[in-house]
Amino acid sequence: SLTDPLTGIGNRRAFNEQCEREWRRALRAREELSIALIDIDFFKSVNDRFGHPAGDRVLAEVGKVLMAECKRASDFVARYGGEEFVLLMSGHSSAEAEQVAERMRSAIKGAVVAVDGQEIGVTVSVGVAGMRPARQSSRFELIKAADLALYQAKREGRDRVVTDRTLGAVVADVESTPRSEEHTSELQSQF
């Protein structure tokens, strides 16, 4: 299955397949590809305080808001795992992807989930990365850069978007710097 049964959006497998297709397309077209990793802040506290059914409702609501905020047909949202979601944006620079991610962060912050007469406010932290794929680069480098930016957003206090500013500079030299098979395998094993 390619659909997450709880949220009704794509699951991790769907994301992996779509990301691979978009990576190859962006490589051929020499276009940028960006992703945003989105993590619900303090999600464990929601489960602990309100119970897992409430946590499920929060996950479903976040998925719904993310889908509603996708303005282009080529944008692809999926549940990445647990309380993490991912947005794949073809043809977006990291700066453009950052604007989309900020709009989504703000929309989620404005959403309220009602559970047993109580309102649960939700915030997310987002890590964004973008690059123009090159023959010697890997989609796993893009994912890792977004993941590192996400953890920086968490360290900086949550409820924010942080964009990787190093990947584009590194990728500019990629065509002249071959990557070893070992390096690529190491990145793949992390994701």
What does this structure look like?
With 191 residues, this protein is of the alpha+beta class. The protein is built from 7 helices and 7 strands; from the N terminus they run αβααββαβββαβαα. The chain has helices spanning 12-29, 43-50, 52-69, 94-110, 139-155, 167-172, 181-190, and strands spanning 33-40, 76-81, 84-90, 112-115, 118-121, 124-131, 161-163. The protein has a 5-stranded mixed β-sheet, sandwiched between helices. The chain has a two-stranded antiparallel ribbon with strand order 4-5. The radius of gyration is 17 Å and the shape is globular. The two termini are 19 Å apart.
Q: Which descriptors apply to this entry?
A:
191 residues, alpha+beta, five-stranded mixed beta sheet, two-stranded antiparallel sheet, 7 strands
**C-alpha termini separation:** 19 Å
Task: Give me the side-by-side strand order of the main sheet.
Answer: 2-3-1-6-7
Strand count, sense and closure of the main sheet? Answer: 5 strands, mixed
The number of helical elements comes to: 7
- Strand-pairing-aware structural class: alpha+beta
- Run of helices and strands: HEHHEEHEEEHEHH
Number of strands: 7
**Quick one: overall form?**
globular
Radius of gyration: 17 Å
Low-confidence segments: 169-191
Helix percentage:
40-55%
| Strand fraction | 15-25%
pLDDT average, as an integer? 89
